[in-house]
Write a structure and sequence with these properties.
The complex is a heterodimer. By secondary structure, chain A is an alpha+beta fold. Chain A contains four helices and 13 strands. The chains are: A alpha+beta, B mainly alpha. The interface between A and B is medium-sized, with 28 and 24 residues.
Chain lengths: ~250, ~625
């Protein structure tokens, strides 16, 4: 829950920055003046960019954690390789190993007794045979995503530090290895993320994604559509490390 | 008695019947008002008998009031021809009593009314060229001019109306043609193409509804003339022209649509005479008059009004700057709308005013906007000189030298190219052709050579002259009109009319090219001398900087490297409650342009020193 709150705050930050600018600029904000003024007709919103992605590779190690898990909390250690065809469009290949631990929400309760956290075996074995008794155990996932980055902006942190960011959304197919028997299935994932620019070749990346796939439970007739929410953070290194502003 | 009354009542309609039948027989449609839609099918009813007042009884479509709309074709039912029928001949038998020539004219007018303007224009032209129809030539030309106007061929229309006017005021189409000139002036990008023609007939009385517009246009004509005479060092004649400007402007009443524009011209005329207070009063009148747009004003009128308002602000600011009232100047410069046509000029000029009162941060901040990639092609060479001066005065010698070197690197080749162009002593039209080539390359996106890039800078520079720009726009408009023949119907395209019009347009184009060439050469001469002066200043700053730096180094050596001339300034990034502070990190955001302030962190100026210039 704390993670969700943090993620929401991070996601809401750019929106807040915009609202603040509008409120503080008076009745007609500079933003509104800009949208109706004559400059709009002849010049782009930004030039001399502090950060551009067009034609660059992005190598991005990341750490993600699952949200709202009933049985297992997953920690994903992965990396993504992204190529930016244009300033707004990119294709990304990513993969990651997932370490699953029993979620705090999972409880085993006696019929008239107290509840306790289940053991790993209780959730993954039927007797001594590994079975997918509890949904959400994941060991590996990979995906191919199309990214669209329509928003480039900057934030003023306590009126002292300027942070440039961009926002992207992504969607694409995914392969998921789940359950104690290592079942592989195909699904998809959608997500939204932010890159906070550190310098011309390095950015901090945060991302919220929903991995959607079908999971077969135990007994095998039980099938569930999984919506695995994951929030991640990572660093993005851009190659080449320099870029040229095109007018 | 009662029987007699009944008989009398019955007799009256019986007696009236033959007359009614006769009226019908004559082709008069007494129900014309009720059958409005069928009007076009009955040309004899719509016949216009030209009389001495074509604007009224003739039913000529004279534009309504002062309105920028194209005049609506409001055809009034013409009075019935009461003249006796002409001597009967075999080919002129007509129940309405008209000649065959008249019928031809009517038929062409009917085409015009049916909005077949191309067909009508060809017919009118043929009639105007037919020696047998000499009596109708003026009328044919008049309608031809109207048809061309309706076809959007304003330059051709102007040329044709000019021919009607050249026939003198004895033709019944004279006054109407004169009025049409106003409408053409509203449609063309450069009203000055019409001014010469209007000025020719300045002695004639104009209808009340056009009087102010006429006076304004005439004042503008005299203003342009006065400026040209000043350029030619004919001061006496120029004085007369400006006197005429003021006289004509005084005749335009307050509240009139042309009042603000007239006041602007008046203000400029006073400014020329160095009557600064009167000039300021006129400009303030312009500002007051253009504060709110007139109710129901069109977008173009509102835009024109806004442009005029900004020009008035610029003039107010420059006048105050000239009188060393820098804070007033800054106040008026700040009134210029962000991103508007005058904005960059205002930013640059206010930099000088800011510098004069010691606000170097604001001056340098304005220059940041000017140096943004958005305005890379704009021509502000003096911006670098100002920047160098500010750094020099703050004892930042390295930076000052580096800026002067930048200036030399950028503008040295521009001056050389300017000199090469001016020394060539080409024909006026050739000057324009040089620019035109660069302009075409720009449009087509062709790769430009270094010389092209320099020429492009010079082109941009030349186009800062508003009159030249308007003339260039006018040439473009004229060329579009020539090109528009290609999209017309074959009947029109391959007619003698088209050949004749294209020939006339080409002559007009050559005239305009010549005019533009003369203006371009004049502008280049002027800018060359300005650039020479600026480079001279640059060299002086370079020399001064080097010698000051040398003195400083010598002093430093004398005290064993202990002396520090440059001190850290105290500064704050605090802003008012209505502002937000965004540090500049080399990135230009459109909504931040014009708001930059450069923080000078070190220098040698005592900050408590009184401000200069005021």
């Amino acid at each position: 829950m704390r993670w969700l709150l943090l993620a929401t705050m991070v996601l809401a930050a750019p929106g807040f920055a915009q609202t603040k600018a509008e409120d503080e600029a008076g009745d007609v904000s500079e933003v509104d003046k800009d949208s109706s003024g004559p400059l709009r007709d002849r010049i782009p919103p930004v030039s001399g960019h502090a950060f551009l992605m067009n034609g660059r590779f992005e190598i991005s190690p990341e750490l993600a954690i699952s949200l709202r898990d009933a049985f297992f909390t997953k920690y994903l250690f992965g990396a993504a390789l992204t190529y930016h065809f244009t300033e707004t469009l990119a294709l990304s290949l990513r993969g990651g190993y997932t370490a699953s631990i029993i979620s705090g929400a999972a409880q085993v309760c006696a019929q008239q007794g107290a509840c306790r956290a289940p053991t790993f075996d209780e959730l993954t074995k039927n007797g001594s045979t590994p079975e997918n008794k509890a949904y959400g155990l994941m060991t590996f996932m990979a995906s191919l995503d199309l990214q669209w980055s329509p928003i480039y902006g900057k934030l003023s942190l306590i009126a002292e530090k300027v942070v440039h960011f961009n926002t992207y959304i992504l969607a694409g197919p995914a392969i998921v290895d789940y359950g104690p028997k290592g079942t592989i299935t195909v699904g998809g994932n959608i997500g939204v993320g932010f890159r906070f620019v550190i310098n011309k070749w390095l950015a901090l990346r945060t991302e919220l994604r929903d991995v959607i796939y079908f999971e077969q439970g135990f007994p095998v007739t039980n099938t569930s559509v999984r919506n695995q929410l994951m929030v991640g953070i990572g660093f993005s290194m851009f190659v080449p490390t320099v870029f040229e502003e095109s007018r | 008695m009662r029987v007699f009354r009944i008989l009398a009542l019955a007799l009256v309609p019986m007696l009236a019947m033959p007359a009614f039948a006769q009226m019908n027989f004559d082709g008069l449609d007494l129900n014309a008002k009720k059958k409005g839609k069928k009007k076009a099918k009955k040309p004899p009813v719509e016949e216009k008998k030209p009389d001495e007042n074509p604007g009224a009884a003739d039913g000529v479509d004279v534009p309504a009031a002062v309105d920028t709309k194209a005049p609506a074709v409001v055809e009034k039912p013409a009075p019935v021809d009461t003249k006796p029928a002409p001597t009967m001949s075999f080919d002129a038998v007509d129940v309405a009593g008209k000649t065959g020539d008249r019928q031809k004219m009517d038929s062409a007018i009917a085409q015009f009314k049916a909005e077949n303007f191309e067909g009508a224009a060809v017919s009118f032209y043929d009639m105007s060229q037919d020696p047998k129809l000499k009596a109708l030539a003026a009328e044919a030309e008049y309608w031809l001019a109207k048809s061309l106007y309706k076809l959007g061929m304003y330059h051709s229309s102007l040329d044709t109306f000019s021919r009607v006017l050249a026939r003198g005021d004895r033709t019944k189409f004279f006054k109407s043609s004169l009025e049409w000139l106003f409408f053409i002036s509203r449609k063309t990008v450069n009203e000055t193409v019409v001014l010469d023609e209007i000025a020719k007939y300045s002695n004639f009385e104009f209808p009340e509804r056009f009087r102010s517009e006429f006076r304004y246009l005439l004042a503008r004509y005299n203003f342009v003339r006065g400026k040209a005479l000043d350029d030619a060092d004919q001061k006496g004649e120029a004085d007369k022209a400006y006197e005429e400007v003021k006289r004509l402007c005084l005749l335009i009443p307050k509240g009139d649509l042309f009042y603000a524009r007239a006041k602007y011209l008046e203000g400029l005329s006073y400014f020329r005479e160095n009557k600064l207070e009167t000039a300021l009063a006129s400009m303030k009148d312009v500002v007051r008059e253009t504060r709110t747009a007139a109710a129901g004003a069109k977008a173009s009128e509102v835009r024109n009004s806004q442009t005029l308002r900004e020009l008035a602000f610029m003039q107010l600011a420059r006048t105050h700057y000239g009188a060393k009232q820098n804070r007033y100047a800054i106040f008026y410069f700040s009134k210029i709308e962000r991103g508007g046509p005058q904005w960059l000029e205002a930013l640059f000029e206010s930099s000088w005013a800011n510098y004069r009162i010691g606000q170097s941060e604001q001056a340098l901040g304005n220059l940041i906007t000017l140096s943004s990639p958005f305005f890379r092609d704009e021509y502000f060479p003096e911006a670098l000189i100002l920047k160098a001066v500010i750094y020099f005065e703050n004892c930042r010698y390295r930076e000052a030298l580096s800026i002067i070197e930048d200036f030399e690197r950028i503008y040295g080749p521009v001056q050389e190219e300017l000199e090469r162009l001016v020394q060539k002593n080409m024909e006026a039209t050739e000057y324009f052709t040089v620019f035109e080539d660069v302009r075409k390359k720009n449009k087509s996106g062709e790769k430009k050579t270094n010389t092209d890039e320099i020429l492009e800078r010079i082109l941009n520079l030349a186009l800062t002259d508003k009159d030249l720009k308007k003339t260039v726009d006018s040439i473009t408009e004229l060329e579009s009109e020539i090109d528009s023949f290609g999209s017309k119907s074959d009947t029109f395209k391959y007619s003698n009319l088209s050949k004749s019009l294209i020939e006339s347009l080409k002559v007009a184009r050559t005239e305009l090219l010549k005019k533009a060439g003369i203006m371009a050469k004049g502008k280049l001469d002027f800018e060359l001398s300005q650039l020479k002066t600026m480079r001279g200043n640059g060299i002086r700053i370079h020399y001064e900087t080097t010698s000051k730096e040398k003195d400083f180094l010598e002093q430093q050596l004398g005290v064993g490297g202990q002396k520090e001339i440059v001190k850290s300034y105290q500064y704050s990034v605090a802003v008012s409650d209505e502002e937000l502070y965004w540090p500049y990190v080399g990135e230009y955001w459109r909504d931040e342009l014009g708001t930059y302030q450069y923080t000078l962190t070190k220098g040698c100026i005592e900050r408590s020193a009184p401000a200069k210039g005021e």
